[in-house]
Amino acid sequence: MTSSKLLSNKRIETLNRDTDYLGIINKGELITQFLRGSSESIEEIKMFALYGDWGSGKSTLMKFIQDELKGEFNTFFFEAWEFEKDENLAMSLLEFIASESESNEEAFYKDVLKYGGRILRGLGKSIKLNIPLFPNGPGIDLDPSAFVEEMTKAEEISFYEALKKFKIEFRRLEDFTTKGENPKYNIVFIDDLDRCEPEQVLNLMSAIKLFFTYGEKTIFFCGIDKSAVEAAVRTKYGKVVKSNEYLEKIFDISFSMPNEVNVQKLINHYFDSRIYTLRGDSSPINYRIDEFFRSIGFYNPRRIKKVLNKYQMLRSFKFLSSDYVENFPNIDLKKNSERSLFETLLVLYLIILHEFYSSDFDNFLNFEKKLQIYSKAIDGYTNNSGELNQYLSSNFSSTRFDEIYNLGHNNDSHIRFAICISPNNIEKIHLNALIAGSGSQIVGTKNSIDLLFFKYINKHNFNDWVATNSSSATFKSVKKLIKDLL
Q1: Phi/psi zone of residue 398: left (φ > 0), alpha (ψ -120 to 50 degrees), beta?
Q2: 124: pLDDT confidence band, cut at 50, 70 and 90?
Q3: Cα dihedral 366, 372, 378, 383 in deg (nearest 10)
């Protein structure tokens, strides 16, 4: 076997055309060109957003842009989640920028922190002072007493005096970072906001908009998951403010992650192009896996990477331990002979359930629960209870895959096979739905993964799935394997 290395679930540090399964390079080059052309407009355009769902590759794209702009901008990369435990993210950001700019010859950055601390540590303390983020928009609540507490009695100054001094010191900091042969502008990337608490998210964005944009040579580029901001806005402002309107006022210009995800490149890292045949259809295994993920609605790149890493662990485990070898499923091993396509897909599916749908994993092969659900949902049979009990009690969950093929190629056998993978998230079902090709006769929770998996497998008769390369494994043994090892 030629093994595949496990891929980190973090951003891709060495991005190239082969590892770019998110279309990041093309998008990154366009954004980079725009930022280069906008450097002269920094006094007016200071806030940029990159919108994308969790796991969509925002971190990788921002790192790519940072690498492309080094030498033309002074670049800072602030990973907000690492500072989540700090009392105030905005203050942590200021300390980060100052520390990254620190020089033994320059002590003024301490004044930036001193006055910045007096301003930023008061965020959200009370309603004594309210500064609007934008005209007729929501404000950020500040408590002037919080600033006073930051000073000794001999140094007490007003909030507005501290704000004035902070403005001066921040521009001095900019001048220092851009002096001499250094690039003339700064760009601060802010990542992992979607992993922070809602209050922290809003406080940081508000602080940047209110205070950090006093600078004349610094722009901020934030990776944003709109759903995280929506939750934060809803928590703080209720229905008074819409998240989209809030973001439009905060950010001058926004970009979105590429819509077309080339997960095929990611899959190719784990699966080669060896041909697998199913009922006369011969296709490469890597394309079959891609089709499978699409069919069950599982297409988040970060989640796919995690599942495939777990799958690779099982591949390696087979060659390290003899305890499970006898009943080990005949999964694809890459760069080897054709194995069982069904057992490969079943293992991937159960890994997905185990990692992300724990309730569905626990209820897989829970026939008592199926009886409760199906007794209420079954339709079209006068003697449905007895017939349903018969199929549930004579299911193939403990029957070896390599023996199922010889048990008869009829509808009864297929129902016994199908009921092992039949979904729990249903409202109505006809027993005929358990016959191959009849999955449309199920009414269930829209796009539930167990329903989508059932419909995908049930497009073919059970004997097509187990006709070749089946092992001594069973549905139960595969579930136990996943539970015990992963």
Answers
A1: alpha
A2: very low
A3: 110
In angstroms, the CA 35 to CA 450 distance is 45
Share of residues in the chain with pLDDT > 90 (%): 32
- Residue 144, pLDDT above cutoff 50: no
Each residue's pLDDT tens digit, 364-382: 999 999 888 888 877 655 4
Strand boundaries in 324-403, DSSP class E: 378-379
Both structure tokens of 420:
């092992």
Mean pLDDT for all residues in the chain: 81
Which token pair is 411? 């509808």
**Domain map (residue ranges) of the chain:** 24-256, 265-485
Q: Could you tell me which residues are beta bridge partners of residue 471?
A: none
Amino acid identity, position 100: E
Task: Give the confidence band of 456 by pLDDT, cuts at 50, 70, 90.
Answer: very high
| CA separation for the pair 349, 222 (Å, rounded) | 35
The topology (CATH level 3) of 24-256 is Rossmann fold (3.40.50)
Strands 426-430 and 378-379: parallel
SS3 letters for the chain? CCCCCCCCCCCCCCCCCCCCCCCHHHHHHHHHHHHHHCHHHCCCCCEEEEECCCCCCHHHHHHHHHHHHECCEEEEEEEHHHHCCCCCHHHHHHHHHHHHCCECCECCHHHHHHHHHHHHCCECCCCCEEEECCCCCCEEEECHHHHHCCCCHHHCCCHHHHHHHHHHHHHHHHHHHCCCCCCCCEEEEEECHHHCCHHHHHHHHHHHHHCHHHCCCEEEEEEECHHHHHHHHHHHHCCCCCHHHHHHHHCCEEEECCCCCCHHHHHHCCCCCCEEEECCEEEEHHHHHHHHHHHCCCCCHHHHHHHHHHHHHHHHHHCCCCCCCCCCCCCCCCCCCCCCHHHHHHHHHHHHHHHHCHHHHHHCCCHHHHHHHHHHHEECCCCHHHHHHHHHHCCCCCCCHHHHHHHCCCHHHHHHHHHHHCCCCEEEEEHHHHCCCCHHHEEECCCCHHHHHHHHHCCCCHHHHHCCCCCCCCHHHHHHHHHHHC
∠ Cα 383 384 388 (to 5°): 130
| Reported pTM | 0.64
Q: Are 186 and 76 in contact (CB under 8 A)?
A: yes
* pLDDT tens per residue across span 258-298: 876 678 888 998 999 999 999 889 999 999 999 999 999 99
- Report the number of secondary-structure helices (H) and strands (E) in the chain: 21, 12
pLDDT at 141 over 60: no
- The token pair that represents 236 in the structure block: 């703080």
Query: Across-strand partners of 255?
Result: 50
The predicted model gives 37-62 an average pLDDT of: 84
